[in-house]
Design a protein that fits this description.
By secondary structure, the protein is of the alpha+beta class. Helix content is 47%, strand content 22%. It contains ten helices and ten strands. The strands form three sheets. A four-stranded antiparallel β-sheet has the order 2-6-4-5. A hairpin with a 2-residue loop joins strand 9 and strand 10. Helix 5 packs antiparallel against helix 10, helix 6 packs across helix 9 and helix 7 packs across helix 8.
Length: 231
């Protein structure tokens, strides 16, 4: 199971959870749960990438956090949060290991090591959401755009990302025209190639130099609490 958090689970806990884990394929844009909805499953992405999105009354959306093979979606519900505070949506299609929420809660309540691991993971998600709030308030669109692409690249292990400009605008909380202008600039300078709703990262090193500090900050938060992301 190519999920880093699952690989950290104590073997005895994995033995108990094994019968409750099921791998499934999820398509892009599928909604796992809505805000204020009861969460019934916990999701461990192995190749899929999930966005936690805040939806406003105007219909606008802003991404608060991005989770992939480095973590889990819905763990706070297993720790008795139960109700989602954001929408969980598949950002990049792929496989996810699904676990019954009550099974994970039962094992975690009997395993101090597992409980501590889940709590540390939830800290990383909270830190990422805080960083996103600061990023939206202070950083320019180009830096945020580069940061977002790099995070998606890290979690998908791919330089090819199937995102439309409209979707990128929604995730970044900006107009599509702003995304178009930034994408054109990055393409002209040779950092990316963009055509027909697909982005190819050509120069990841240069893209990182153009990204805002939040890309590095999110990685640092994760590494301090859970260790470096394995490739």
């Amino acid at each position: 199971m190519n999920n880093q958090l699952l690989s950290f689970f104590p073997p005895s806990d994995m033995k108990l959870l094994g019968p409750h884990l099921k791998a499934a394929q999820f398509d892009q844009h599928r909604v796992l749960f809505e805000a204020d909805q009861r969460i019934r499953h916990v999701y461990f992405p192995t190749s899929a990438v999930v966005s936690l999105v805040i939806t406003l009354s105007t219909g606008e959306m802003v991404e608060a956090a991005m989770i992939g093979k480095d973590g889990v979606v819905g763990a706070s519900a297993a720790l008795d949060g139960k109700i989602a505070v954001s929408r969980g949506v598949i950002q990049l299609s792929g496989e996810i290991v699904v676990c019954d929420i009550e099974a994970l809660k039962s094992v975690a309540m009997q395993s101090p090591k597992l409980l501590a691991l889940l709590m540390r993971h939830e800290q990383t998600v909270y830190a990422q959401a805080q960083q996103s709030a600061a990023c939206f308030a202070t950083h320019q669109v180009e830096g945020r755009f580069c940061r977002w692409l790099l995070r998606a690249r890290d979690l998908s292990d791919s330089d090819y990302l199937p995102f439309t400009q409209e979707y990128l605008g929604e995730m970044l909380g900006v107009r599509r025209t702003s995304v178009t202008a930034v994408a054109r600039t990055l393409q002209e300078t040779g950092l990316i190639k963009y055509a027909r709703g697909k982005i190819q990262i050509v120069d990841a090193v240069a893209l990182q130099a153009s990204a805002c500090e939040c890309y590095g900050s999110v990685k640092t938060h994760y590494e301090r609490l859970l260790g470096p992301l394995k490739k």
